[in-house]
Amino acid sequence: MLARTRTASSLKSASSSRSRRSSAWGVAPPLCLGPAASSKSSRSPLTASKLGRCSSSPPSFMSFAPVLRLTSCVLIAGFMACGGSTEVDMGQTPRADGASNGGSSNGPGNGQSGSPCGADPCANHTGDKTFVEDDAPADAPAQFADSTPQEPGSDAKRQPAIVYPSHETMFPINVSRIRHDWTAGGSDLFELRFEGPNTTVSIYTTSLTWTPTDEQWDWIAESNRGASVKLTVTGLDTSSPEESWRSEPNAALFSEAAVDGAIYYWSTGTKGIMRATVGSPLPEKFYTDPSGSDSESCAACHTLSRDGKRLAVGYNGERLREVSVPERETLVPLATTEPDPEATPMMPGMPAMPKPGMGGGMMAEGMAAAWTTFSPDGKMLLVAADGVLTLIDSDTGATIGDDSGVVATPAGAMATHPDWAATGDKVALTLGTKGGNKEIEAGSIAVLPYADGAWGEAEVIVASTGNDDNNFFPVWSPDSKLLAYVHAEGKSKDAVSAELRLLDVGTGRNISLVRVNQRISNVDGVLGGGNTMPTWAPSTQQGVFWLAFSSVRAYSVVRPADDKEDQIWIAAIDPSAEGDPSYAAFWAPFQSIAEGNHRAFWTHASEDTQCRCVEQCGDSLDNDCDGTADEEGCSECSVEEICGDGIDNDCDCVVDDCNVEICNDGIDNDEDGNTDGDDPQCQVE
User: Fold this and answer.
1) Which domains does the chain carry?
2) Tell me, what's the pLDDT at 493?
3) Which of 26, 37, 328, 558 is most buried, taking the most CB atoms under 10 A from its CB?
4) CA-CA distance, 548 to 475, in Å (whole number)?
5) Cβ atoms within 10 Å of 449's Cβ, excluding its own
6) Strands, E, within 68-187: which ranges?
7) Bridge partners of residue 568, in order along the sequence
8) Phi-psi bin for 223: left (phi > 0), alpha (psi -120 to 50), beta?
């Protein structure tokens, strides 16, 4: 292979013509793709598992492709079951690289392609595409083509109206089973038209609801990733097809890449913790108390470590249990076998019950626990119960520090709802004047500093003005700069007035997320949605973040009125926006409509492919998915690679990779997938 090795001095002179591939991405470390590099940095603790050949594509959110995409849905046993459709290709032939993507189950840091859509290339369709559903006549496209379209506002009674999804909803490209509902407006045949920068897709149906198939979603969403698509519904009365009536348009937006992570939520129907990804067709029942039947025990409010390897739950009267993920093995409380000499045998001739904390086969009862949060490295667990915070070792359950692990908080305040930032230096919490584990009143949001094993003094950053000003459930954004929290009038439990707010801790800017809170079933200004228990999706790079929350709001025509049963909703948040940074929320399609679903805790998962091979210093994000942001030994990620220093300077997962692309020699010299003139960084020999 023809190659040129540069010295450190030659790098400077060459930087203007070849600024390293990372300059196209800023200096964010890319995603690891394969075998480890032959050497490693002397300053950075990069193991062989972290180093390797990495993607030459820009880093992005990545995940496995949706498992199943359905259409023509009906409600069966609380879940949506769906059928199929036929298609008529009226447009251009897709390019060879436009195949729809399949599934992937790679562990963190083991992505296998540079595609932002997962293991397979993204769908890159262009042009027009028409799908005629099974219930529609074959000549439906011709009927609409022959009709005279009437613009929105011509006759409000005749034109259809889009009910769901709401205007300005952003969707991850790997969530596809999004049902679409609209009113008839006097029509019995409908055209859904999705107009994006790359494709225009038309769907024909006689139904008032439609859910995309895998292929349809590839044409609509994945081929227009990172863009906005205009949706209109046009209706036609087949008994008098001379005129057709068009709805007001909706804007549907799509993420630039798939969104990673697993969502663990508490279901009141199953009395346990359910697990799903945004692309899952159905959830799995992940955890219930193994010591009792589902009808007798309940794994309630829960927390996961940021690396997704530990789960803490409160069960059977809010007793702490910590289990490993995915094994579900109990870690805390420790098993016991040594008999307690003061205990009475259960039956004559039988030994007494084991003594707590001595190790063995029987489970000791866990400590009281209502709300918990792990330290970023997962080694410690902060437990809130009855207004008191206690720090314990997450391996043994032993308390850490003086005063039996109790963390000092302001006198007279009930401390609850702790959330440990990924940077490890602070915990957000709620300080209330009264209440208990299940509810709090007159709550204020505070930040508790933590450094070198010592706690600082709590600082109130959102102060309550009284019983009608309640602030609770604070959660840190992936970069530890924003706090999402809940504001309500009155008590925190079952508060229909609850709304989500966002605080920029650095600037003090406090925002009510109006689109998330008040745009419901495509109607603005809807109050009383009862939005609560927010959690952020993990992210390895800056950009749009994702927030999951529980709500009793209406869900389209499936649940047209507010209900006492919470459901999981998801919304995109753009921290760089000047006004309201939120987009309208969508209903998480993996859940059951017949159950109450709460506390959608979002964390890293074995399916993730967004994890980077190195931790980048200074961006406050957990790039390598180990739970901790900017940990000791992180890399500075300079723009250029310095040859011969044994360091991965540019964070592309390859040490001393100084090969230069030579123009017109027919060889991919720098092994970035681009040969000669296809590589804009090539140099003339």
Assistant:
1) 1-59+615-652 (no CATH), 71-254 (2.60.40.10)
2) 73
3) 37
4) 11
5) 13
6) 71-76, 79-83, 127-132, 148-150, 162-164, 169-171, 180-182
7) 550
8) alpha
- Both tokens assigned to 290: 């193994």
578's CB contacts (< 8 A; 6+ apart) are none
Q: State the SS3 of 50-96.
A: CCCCECCCCCCCCCCCCCCCCEEEEEECCEEEEECCCCECCCCCCCC
User: In the sheet where 406-407 sits, what is the strand order?
Assistant: 371-374, 380-385, 388-393, 406-407
Handedness of CA 160, 163, 169, 170 (dihedral sign): negative
- Identify whether the C-beta of residue 447 lies closer than 8 Å to the C-beta of residue 426: yes
Instruction: Give dist(CA 289, CA 273) in Å, integer.
Output: 10
Half-sphere exposure in the Cβ direction for 481 (13 Å, CA): 13
CB 625 within 8 A of CB 540: yes
Minimum mean pLDDT among 223-237, 268-282, 312-326, 362-376: which range?
Answer: 362-376
Check if the beta carbon of residue 283 is closer than 8 Å to that of residue 590.
yes
Q: Considering just the CA atoms, what is the radius of gyration of the chain in Å? A: 27
Q: DSSP 3-state assignment of 11?
A: helix
How does residue 300 score in pLDDT terms, banded at 50, 70 and 90? Answer: low
Burial (CB count <10 Å: 0-12, 13-18, 19+), residue 42: exposed
Residue appearing with tokens 């109607």:
523
DSSP state of 31: B
pLDDT at residue 562 in the model:
67
| End-to-end C-alpha distance for the chain, whole angstroms | 14
- How do residues 398-455 score in pLDDT, each as one tens digit? 999 999 999 999 999 999 999 999 999 999 999 998 877 778 899 999 999 999 999 9
